[in-house]
Amino acid sequence: MTAYTSWTVNQNYNYDICFVNLFTNSKSQHIQDLQGSEGVGYNYPRNALIYIFGYPYNLAQGEIMQYCSGTAAYSKFGNGYVGQTIPCDMTGDCSGGPWVSILCYFIWCWLYYIIEQFYNQ
Fold this sequence. Notes:
The protein has 121 residues and is of the alpha+beta class. The protein folds into 2 domains: 1-37, no CATH class; 42-121, Trypsin-like serine proteases (Thrombin, subunit H, Beta Barrel). The protein is 19% helix and 18% strand. It has 3 helices and 7 strands. The strands form 3 sheets. Strands 4-3-7 form a 3-stranded antiparallel beta sheet, with no helix packed on it. The longest helix has 14 residues, at 106-119. The chain crosses the membrane at residues 96-115.
């Protein structure tokens, strides 16, 4: 795992991020090539529609995944934090879940792909 020392040592919330580093398998294949993956983005503008996923403790002690959505806004957390927030009523233990800017259901993605291919020919 990789985390910024500004978070691990100083608890600076501007650096509250961690990555899990994975090696390739015995065939030199990356996990995202076998299972898929999502991209990572930085410095997205505020006022975008965002979906957040997590396992809030108030639902079966964190065993049921939930999501909420809202418009990203400036966080009022304080202490020099310059991140974003969305109005969300998920309770504790949801931090660390992904923030997704485009929620794509299989059929919608497939239809978009077909339409895009049709118009680009």
